[in-house]
Amino acid sequence: MRSLTLALIAAIVACSSAFANSCQQFSASTTMANGVPAAQWRTDYPIKYPDARVKQTWEFFDFHTQPIDYMNAVLKDARTSFRISNRKLVGTGQEPWWISEWLDYGSSGREPLMGLTKERGPDPGDLSKTSRDGYQVWAVGFYNRAGAAVLGDVFDEPCNPSLPVAIKFPVGTASIKFLFTDASPDEVTYLQGAPEYDAYIDPLGSGVSAHPAKERSSRPVRLLQVDISVKVRGSSETGWVFGTFVWIGPPKGDRLFDNLVPVSLQWGNDPEVYDSSVKQGWINQDLRLVTYGWDKRPTMGFLGRANGPADNIRSSCLSCHAAARTPRASIGILDNRFDMNDVTDTKKVKAHVDTWFQNIKGGQLFQPFEPAASALDYSLQLEAAIFRMCRACQTGDLHGSTPNVCRTSGLYNRAICSAPIEEGTKRELEMMPPPRQ
Ligand code: HEC
After folding, report:
1. 319 C-alpha to center of ligand 1: Å?
2. Is 242 in the pocket of ligand 1 (CB under 6 A)?
3. Of these four, 10, 144, 293, 399, which has the most CB atoms within 10 Å of its CB?
4. How far apart are the C-alpha atoms of 389 and 397, rounded to whole Å?
5. Closest of 142, 150, 170 to residue 75, by C-alpha
6. What pLDDT, on a 0 to 100 scale, did the predictor assign at position 422?
7. 175 in contact with ligand 1, CB cutoff 6 A
8. Whether the predicted pLDDT of 9 surpasses 90
9. What are the pLDDT digits (tens) for 381-399?
């Protein structure tokens, strides 16, 4: 089956310019919505897992004591794979990086030009002291060979993905995610002179609000942030290390990787730390007053934990990602209601930290008292993929039998996907907020 699927994908890739969705019973890909050829990222997932005994280049550094070297070693792997061409981020065609299936549906589904999905819209004062409201952030994320082999197992049957009770990414897995924004460089001054890329995004000023894909138009965006994650060898707080870079001008070298400056790296959530004495991460102090250090954003993440400029100060990289499960827990992946004026209220801070900043080992379930079909080992892409696929089944955009995981997770319970439903209701369903809140 797998080889048949691969042959099919190869045929599709060869004869059309779109990466499309590999599920033949689905024809509502947002990469098709704007009538332009879709980006050609890889979904021909590797069949064989690489030998996990072979050390990756970054493993020669200790992330606790050499965070910058560690992060740069991960980035180095991507340097030869991605470049800017024709106002787009492109791969070599043979880059050892793969995207996830099923992120191309709904109001935050992949746009065609770079395959970007819509992310959380930053709050005013998030990206810089003077950044205003209404800006959009769009991103595309990839897994390396080890991670993509897991995607291959999951999406062996693209219309009926299979998820074990606990997904386990192998040691050596790395993921990289490029985040772009339409924020003005007049306000976010470190983006001045940054190369422009084109992407089909929502109307100007939309912020996080949802729009149907056909309302998108091609507008310039700039690279803001590059996120990385790595599954580590041996025991550690969580089994993962998450880190982020920010693009800082003026442009130099390749104007892509050569401008990336490490912002933060995190290996634990500092459970039970209710003040700013966090230790399970590293923050680049040189970026004080550049990416943090003002009233609205005194720190990158909650009480000094790691996060990127596009991320919510109430969270951290690991706190959101530790909540990856299908279905999502009823409290979601982040509590946006925490009032940042309450950071001195010990009771409220304790409740927030104890809920969100645990050290959950990859494969363990967040909020285990709520049943789940699968713990997703920190992969929020897999979570978004399954959620969107089940939504497509519910709205009648995916035809035929309901994928098993939709039923086991309770996301959609009928045996057969809906007949196409009324436009109004469908729109409402499609417009559910993007997953990164
Ligand atoms: C508010 C929650 C949230 C925070 C905080 C967050 N992320 Fe994510 N991240 C997501 C979601 C949702 C996705 C999947 C959807 C997508 O890629 O559009 C994702 C995807 C990713 C991916 C792609 C692989 C995967 O795990 O799905 C990487 C790598 C990543 N994030 C790294 C980071 C790093 C590094 C940080 C901190 C600097 C961070 N994230 C902070 C929500 C978050």
Report:
1. 10
2. yes
3. 144
4. 9
5. 142
6. 73
7. yes
8. no
9. 999 999 999 999 999 999 9
What spacing in Å lies between the alpha carbon of 135 and ligand 1's midpoint? 18
**Percent of the chain clearing pLDDT 90 (strictly above):** 89
| Bridge partners of residue 401, in order along the sequence | 416
Nearest to 184 by CA among 132, 232, 234, 223: 132
- For 45-92, the pLDDT digits (tens) are 999 999 999 999 999 999 999 999 999 999 998 999 999 999 999 999
E strands present in 63-150: 82-85, 88-91, 117-118, 137-143
pLDDT in tens, 120-174: 899 999 999 999 999 999 999 999 999 999 999 999 999 999 999 999 999 999 9
The string of pLDDT tens digits covering residues 349-374 is 999 999 999 999 988 999 999 999 99
Q: Which of 367, 217, 281 is nearest to 65 (CA)?
A: 281
DSSP state of 309: T
User: Can you tell me which atom of ligand 1 is nearest the CA of 141?
Assistant: 23
Amino acid at 15: C
> 15: helix, coil or strand?
helix
How far apart CA 310 and CA 9 sit, in angstroms, is 34
Q: Is-cis flag, bond preceding 251, omega within 30? A: no
Question: What is the mean predicted confidence (pLDDT) over 203-227?
Answer: 95
Backbone angles phi, psi at 244, to 5 degrees: -145, 150
Ligand 1 centroid to residue 105 C-alpha, Å: 18
Cis preceding linkage at 327, omega within 30: yes
Report which DSSP code applies to 433.
P
Angle, helix 380-395 to helix 423-430, in steps of 10 degrees? 170
What residue's CA is closest to ligand 1, atom 36?
317
Compute, in angstroms, the gap from residue 378 CA to the centroid of ligand 1.
Answer: 9
- Domain boundaries, given as residue ranges, for the chain: 2-313
Mutate to test the pocket of ligand 1, among 380, 382, 387, 437 (most ligand atoms within 8 A of CB): 380
Q: Token pair for residue 294?
A: 């003002």
- d(CA 415, ligand 1 centre) in Å: 32
- Give distance in angstroms: CA of 321 to centre of ligand 1: 6
The residue nearest atom 6 of ligand 1, judged by CA position, is: 317
